[in-house]
């Protein structure tokens, strides 16, 4: 694996080196070029002064040239050479400088050319200018050669250069150190995140990453913690569900086993008792069947399979559910009253809406008192379709209202089981309501009993096609 830190440091180093090299080269070459330009201008000007002064002579001889040059200030040059038209030196003041004059330049100047050179060598600017000398008639009578050696300017320039170099080195080192420290901190935090991910992946959902600071990595850490939190909750719910479900299935199975054992072991069991036992076995089996059917309904709702919603009428669904529940209501002598408005259409599936309506009304009858009352109302306004199921039953204590939509939750276990309840009805109602974009609330009815209110968004006529 290539470490991000190494890649990062390598990348920054390359960038830095390029930047610093450019910083070291450009200003210096620019100032050097400028010095060359200046040298050219000043040397050319002085060479042309000497050349025109010598132009007054008919021919260049040692004496005449020395006389003329004595009047001119040529002390600034390391060497001044004058040759006559035959290329023979008639003036040369700097034999001791050890500089070889550019004889070739002088020869070219004798044929009429101005020649200039400037270069930087051995910590000095060395410049030379060679120019023809012409007399009044325009004939070339010789040539002048000036050589200048400037170590002072070179010194200044080299001083600047070494300062830039030192500064660059310092900048480079500090930047590299900063990048190394910064990337180390970054990598360490990323490693912490990776090791947390590994811990959670290994199954420890209670693990949380300790986040610091307020940057993107902190954000990532917080997101990771939230994700783990959700995983933790889901995992706990799953475990509880599995244990609750097995418990729910175990109880009727144990009864069946007990009853069948009694029949098998009791050889001369009388037919009346036998019938009673077998009926009990049938009842337990029916309970098992109901529970498993409800579990299947819940797992279908959990699966999040995208069902295609269709327009369904709340009024008709309530009528269908009540026709199924009338016998139960009669048995408990509970009166059913309905106020069902027309046009209460929602987008759902007929099956889910039936589950919602049936479970709510069934509960209202089951947990009612003798001669109690159930009032079902459906109504619609511009945006919402509302179904209200009120009863005058035993009511739900306030502290239980939050939990009654949880799986297998029963307020009064004994009573609910006696009534054949598995504690799954309201969780199916809850999940189905949410699956179709609705909401459900529960409250107390006055003077006694409970009220369940389910609201759905009212679909537009384009959606329902009605
Ligand atoms: N209208 C009501 N009045 C009083 N208590 C209620 C009412 N509706 C529900 N409950 C309480 O809430 C619990 C959960 O209801 P839920 O419908 O989920 O399960 P259940 O009726 O026991 O079983 P199931 O509906 O699966 O056959 C019930 O056991 C009961 O204690
Ligand atoms: Mg129920």
General description of the model:
This protein is an alpha+beta fold. It has 3 domains: 4-159, PAS domain (Beta-Lactamase); 216-300, Helix Hairpins (Orthogonal Bundle), CATH 1.10.287; 307-464, Heat Shock Protein 90, CATH 3.30.565. It is 56% helix and 18% strand. The protein is built from 12 helices and 12 strands. It has helices at residues 4-54, 62-71, 103-110, 151-201, 216-265, 271-302, 314-331, 350-366, 398-401, 413-418, 425-435, 461-464; strands spanning 79-84, 89-92, 115-121, 124-134, 140-150, 310-313, 335-340, 345-348, 373-380, 384-391, 439-444, 450-457. The protein has a 5-stranded antiparallel β-sheet with strand order 2-1-5-4-3, sandwiched between helices. Strands 7-9-10-12-11 form a 5-stranded mixed β-sheet, covered by helices on one side. α1 runs antiparallel to α4. The protein is rod-shaped, with a radius of gyration of 53 Å. The model has no long low-confidence stretch (mean pLDDT 90). The chain binds adenosine-5'-triphosphate and magnesium ion. Residues 294, 359, 363-364, 367, 391, 393-396, 404, 409-412, 416, 421-427, 450 line the site of adenosine-5'-triphosphate.
